[in-house]
Amino acid sequence: MPQISSQRFGPLELDSNAVLEFPAGLPGFEGQTRFLLVEDRATAPIVFLQSCSASELCFLAAPLAAIDDAYQLAITPEDLHRLGLDENRQPRMNEEVLCLAILSAPEDGPLTANLLAPAVINLVNRKAVQAVRADSRYSHRHPLAPREAPCS
Amino acid sequence: MLVIRRRPGEIVLIGPEVEIEILDSSGSHVKLGIRAPKDVLVLRKEIQLTQQQNLAAAREVSPTALDRLLDTLR
Predict the structure, then answer these.
(1) Global pTM?
(2) Does residue A98 contact residue A121 with C-beta atoms inside 8 Å?
(3) Residue A120 lies in a domain
(4) 152 residues of chain A, pLDDT tens digit each
(5) Chain A residue closest in CA terms to B73
(6) For residue A79, what are the domain limits?
């Protein structure tokens, strides 16, 4: 099986079922169109979007439901079209699409998730788009706070 | 911030080469038509914010930072 190189994981097998195609890249990374979705049970629910061409480019992401279980999608018709989905309705999360928020974890700075622009993956054709909402309902820097420890 | 009131059909000029025309205004939406040379960036603000976040998120995440993230999600 072909391989790609990853700074985080070392050489990775390029399983075509796990390759996501972002036809338009991502904002700021428009030339990066192929990513491998890497899941590591040790760091669940965090998943990794490893660029197939840039070994140092690896986004950390988490399913939207892990951050806000009441999240409502608002994908624009243009993005629905790019995904090959019906432009007249929002797709069903986890049935038709996998939706991930890209996470930011600076060394000394707040931990945040981009809920304004989730990476939306069409589970049937593996096409993906970072779908930037047109409303202001969610933040591009949604703060992540440590869960409260259970009372003992 | 310069605040200007315009009606549909009216135009605002920005610099010598950029024109913004109000095409339609109804309910909660305003439809704008923008005429600008190809080398002038015209972008929804949310896309710029996402670009900035992606650039920040692309920086290497240390094991400590990864642990801090996991603490918030588990």
Answers:
(1) 0.90
(2) yes
(3) yes
(4) 889 999 999 999 998 888 999 999 999 999 999 999 999 999 999 999 999 999 999 999 999 999 999 999 999 999 999 999 999 999 999 999 999 999 999 887 899 999 999 999 999 999 999 999 989 899 999 999 887 666 65
(5) A66
(6) 3-142
If one counts the domains in chain A, the total is 1
CB B53 within 8 A of CB A140: yes
- Residue A46, domain member (yes or no): yes
Q: Do A46 and B66 lie within an 8 Å CB cutoff?
A: yes
Nearest to A117 among B50, B59, B69 (CB): B50
Task: List CB contacts (< 8 A) between B72 and chain A.
Answer: 111, 144-147
The CATH number covering residue A51 comes to 2.30.290.10
Backbone angles phi, psi at A12, to 5 degrees: -125, 140
Residue B46 has its nearest CB partner, among A112, A116, A147, at: A116
Instruction: Answer whether A29 sits within 8 Å of B54, measured CB to CB.
Output: yes
